[in-house]
Structures are given as C-alpha cells and as structure tokens.
Write a structure and sequence with these properties.
Layout lengths: L1 H12 L30 H23 L34
Helix pairs in contact: 1-2
Length: 100
C-alpha cells in the first residue's frame, strides 16, 4: 500500500499519467491483516482481511482526493475467481455469483 501511495504522489507531482495495479492477497490462504484490523470482524480472519482491504482502498481513494486528481482518475475494482469456498467459514462466500 505504501509503495502504491508513494507512486501516486510521484506521478501526480510529475503531472504524468499513471497506471497503478494493486493486487492485495490478504483474503487468500492464509488470511492476514494488520494489528489495526486483527480480531475485529465477526467473520474471523477472513473478515479481518476484508476489512484490511477496505481500509487500503480507502487510503488510495483518500490520496487521490488529497492530490485533487480524483476527478481525472479511473478506479477499477475487479475480482479473481471468488472466495475459497473449500475453506468453509474461513474462506468467504461467493453468494449467488459462483458455484463452489
């Protein structure tokens, strides 16, 4: 996250277009989160990892607003193959979107 935020700052200062490809893996086996989010979710480690990703995305969006480039920046959210349903409760839930 910190490298991504620095990259955004550098590109903004140079008035250069940029592409930041940020791929968090906190929700993949083994789930992890910082001490700020560890043990906070009722969904256990998976929920903590989702909270961590939410925090990080918020920091990226906050940086774009701080630099006043949010209106000229595209932000795309995508997913990979969905939750690791074989891990049951610790692996997330795809809801109706993907068979497990």
């Amino acid at each position: 996250l910190e490298e991504g935020l620095s990259f955004i700052e550098e590109q903004s200062a140079a008035k250069a277009p940029f592409f930041l490809y940020w791929t968090p893996d906190a929700t993949h086996d083994q789930n992890y989160s910082s001490s700020m989010n560890h043990g906070k979710s009722i969904r256990g480690r998976y929920g903590d990892a989702v909270m961590e990703m939410d925090y990080c995305v918020g920091k990226i969006l906050e940086k774009l607003r701080e630099l006043k480039i949010e209106k000229e920046t595209f932000v795309f959210f995508t997913s990979d193959n969905g939750a690791a349903t074989y891990r049951r409760r610790d692996g997330g839930d795809n809801g109706p979107f993907l068979c497990g």
